[in-house]
Amino acid sequence: MHNSEINIVVKNSLDALSFYENIFRIERIEVGDFILGQNEVTIKINELYLRLLDENPDFNMLAPQNDTYIPFWFNITVNNIEQTYNQALNLGCTKIQDVNHMPEMGIKNAMFKDPYGYTWLLHEVIEIIDYETRVELLEKQGFKRNKD
Length: 148
Hints:
2,3-Dihydroxybiphenyl 1,2-Dioxygenase, domain 1; alpha/beta; 148 residues; Glyoxalase/fosfomycin resistance/dioxygenase domain-containing protein; single chain
């Protein structure tokens, strides 16, 4: 079997599992039952495998502080962006960008930061727009292509 996964450190993997299950449709792959600091959980969101590891300073596995900027985010496509986004905010996530409808690009998107310090970019696909059409739209907005 071949797959890829992203591993993230959180204060408590079981708490994070419960939290994420209240926002996303989660498939539980493995849920450990070790003591706090030694536990881990593997879940699947859409086709993304995500391993949640308990914070353990003895192994230099430190969860991000909520005020820390991490130049990385999870990009998740959902069926109902307004519902998913509002669920996240109601559970204590911090708004980064409200739902933004971009009909010319065929999508809606929104961003939030969860209490564990991680950023999530939600997408809802309204209509499939081909790559070249999207590029043309971006060029009209001032984006420049590298034509070397």
